[in-house]
Amino acid sequence: MKKALAFLFACALVFAVDPELEEEIAGLEETKASIEEQLKADDANTAVLNLELEALEAQIEKLKNEPSRDDFRTGWFAGAGVGILSTNWDWTAGSETLYKSSDNLFTIDAQGGGITMFNRYFGIQYYGDVEIGIPSTSSNLDGILLATATANVDLIVNFYNTRKFGIGVFAGIGGGTEIVFGEYSRDYSYNYQTGNVEVTRNYAPSRYGWVGRANVGMRMTFGKYGVDFVAKIPFTDSIIMDSVNAPTYLQGSEVKLKDKIAFSVRFVAGQF
Prior knowledge:
Blueprint: H1 2-16, H2 19-39, H3 46-65, E1 73-93, E2 96-117, E3 122-135, E4 144-161, E5 166-191, E6 196-203, E7 207-222, E8 225-234, E9 238-241, E10 253-270
Antiparallel strand pairs: 1-2, 1-10, 2-3, 3-4, 4-5, 5-6, 5-7, 7-8, 8-10, 9-10
Helix pairs in contact: 2-3
């Protein structure tokens, strides 16, 4: 029984110690011992060596007080990225389809929130995400701006996680609102005086709908910085304009927006 308890205690000690921290501290302790030996020499430059010794001792103390990645800990993270969003638009009046389009939008996004790690391998992140979709000038959606704001919770699974490098995946869900700003139609006319075709853009009030989506991604960390590769997969349609709330000139129409999938690359900073 005593041997079994001793074995369990030894295992607990092994898992309680961060090997990476211990190795770094051991290396600094060796350097410290070397400097202390140099101080014993008659021709030692004591002023310089004492300064180096003080700096080493402060660094060692800081590392000893640093929490292990195997401990329960909380922190923050923030990031920004760019990507592409694939969408489907359906504009209907009753059973009749007035307009249907598939378009790709360039996106910029920003995130901010917290991270709770249960150990170095498992944790959760909870954050707000804002994404702006901008269509190309050749797109059918040229002239509009699509904004999405969501609250998200993801589970984190790290395959490798040290103070200098880490790699893992995360997956979760998010929900929020999707807002469309911009025009709903264009009128074209020929100007006989200038010989040019002139375009008049007709703008509708901003419209919004609700969106739910799944988040799947991979993260590589380099100290306090990292790179995320993220896919956002919607599981709801956004009713941007319904038949009841449509303006008079569009009465009876309904516009559905279906984000098929969004990919983005984010640059993040935080306490991973």
